[in-house]
Amino acid sequence: MTSTARLAERQPPNTPGAHIPDEHPDGVRATARIRAAHNGRVTTLPQLRNDGPFHLRRVRTDRSAAKVGIIGAMSAPLGGDRLTLDITAEDRAELEVTTAAATLALRGPTTEAATYDVRLTAGEHASLRWLPQPLISAAGSNLRQTTTVELAATARLVLREEQLLGRADEESGHLVNRILVRRAGRTLLDQHTAYGSPEPGWDGPAVLNGHRAVGQLLLVDPEVEARHEPVLLREGSRDGCAVLAPLAGGPALFATAVAPTASVLRELLDEAHAHARRK
């Protein structure tokens, strides 16, 4: 059994006691898979499995790495949908995955929550970049999104996720988001956030302070310089801010940002990324 296969086997189940929404007969059930492998010279893509709203396309690059773009083939996630995206970079593979457009969560035929599970696995000396466009939580939607990451000790990861709480001039839907990262079998990060009604105080001064764009950036790299003190970017600005801090469980830096708009949010996360890579 390869080290990547062992990592995939260790992916943790749903949190004990967590509410799993009942299935709805009108909901979409879909699992798309991407698998990247290194053939000794370049990274290949032996598996691209489309399903449901996930339409996978190879993107041409001038490097030895592989890149995949995800195109939405239908409106999703809607209430009652159960969507899974399984992405694996095997030992020494270099893979980047992006989405062609923002993901829009809508209400659909039921008020039951939709689920969107992203599972990322990177083997020894692999490099995995997960850089989707933002997730938009439209008014009336109900979504539980979970990103689960399993990394080998020598794997590298760049993960950037962004959430926009409502479209222009509308309220946010209900969005529960979890990022769970394990490195070499040990938990590196477990962040749980919840926005929109009926969550208490989610848009108050202690959380978003009226902002409607929030994002996360995680860099895991054996060569990264894990600073001992957190760095606050744009402190005191009315146009959002970000904090970049080391994680105790490994060579990793994690940034969280809030902003009034998607464009400002991306600027903050790009600034955090550049700061993290600064020698």
UniProtKB/TrEMBL annotation:
UreD, UreF and UreG form a complex that acts as a GTP-hydrolysis-dependent molecular chaperone, activating the urease apoprotein by helping to assemble the nickel containing metallocenter of UreC. The UreE protein probably delivers the nickel. Required for maturation of urease via the functional incorporation of the urease nickel metallocenter. This is Urease accessory protein UreD. InterPro entries: UreD (IPR002669). Keywords: Chaperone, Cytoplasm, Nickel insertion. GO terms for cellular component: cytoplasm. Residues 1-25 are annotated as: Disordered. It is found in: Cytoplasm. Its main location: cytoplasm. The keyword Cytoplasm applies. Belongs to the UreD family. It comes from Saccharopolyspora shandongensis. One of its GO terms (molecular function) is nickel cation binding.
